Amino acid sequence: MTQNMIKAHARFVRYSPYKLRPLVDVIRGKSAEYALQWLGAHKVQGRWSATYATRRAKPIVKVLASAVANAQNRDPLAQPMSLKIADIRVDEGPTLRYFKPTARGSASPQRKRFCHISVSLNAIAAPKKAAVAAQGTEKKEKTKKTATKSRSSKKDVKGS
Questions:
Q1: Are 85 and 29 in contact (CB under 8 A)?
Q2: What is the SS3 string spanning the chain?
Q3: For each of the chain's 160 residues, which pLDDT tens digit applies?
Q4: Angle at CA 138, nearest 5°, toward 137 and 142?
Q5: 7-28 CB burial, b ≥16 within 10 A, e <16
């Protein structure tokens, strides 16, 4: 991990990790702005809130918004569109086990699962236009050289 990583954690979230992982898998590797939009987040009175069809998105939005706020605290010019989700994990937390009474005097075990959510963001470095333009001209020169070589080899074949 590099020094430029911005991190945020939420521990002991009262959702099963099995139910949060599918949401997290979709936004892994995407920009923070895209992830917040996909989860249906919008700002209400300066705070992020989730409007996604499921309530499960709410803790993920809170952690992601916290990571973006951490980035803006470190660098005031940082924007969500310039941040990429380098790593997002939903790890298993403790499990509350208890027994619930069922029919005919028996009991069935119940499990309430908790999870830990951790997010790491990286700043996206925009490529310089001059470097991109230089790469484009090199490719054009290479294609011209290969084209002239193939023409000269055809002339040699015809001449013999």
A1: yes
A2: CCCCCEEEEEEEECCCHHHHHHHHHHHCCCEHHHHHHHCCEEEECCEEEECCCCCCHHHHHHHHHHHHHHHHHHCCCCCHHHEEEEEEEEEEEEEEEEEEECHHHCEEEEEEEEEEEEEEEEECCCCCHHHHHHHHHHHHHHHHHHHHHHHHHHHHHHHC
A3: 456 889 999 999 999 999 999 999 999 999 998 898 888 776 666 666 665 557 888 899 999 999 999 999 988 888 888 899 999 999 999 999 999 999 999 999 999 999 999 999 998 876 555 455 555 555 555 555 555 555 555 555 555 4
A4: 115
A5: bbebeebebbbeebeebbeebe
Rounded to the nearest angstrom, the gap between the alpha carbon of residue 109 and the centroid of all alpha carbons in its chain is 36
Query: Position of tokens 């939420």?
Result: 10
Length of the chain: 160
| Phi, psi at 81, each rounded to 5° | -75, -15
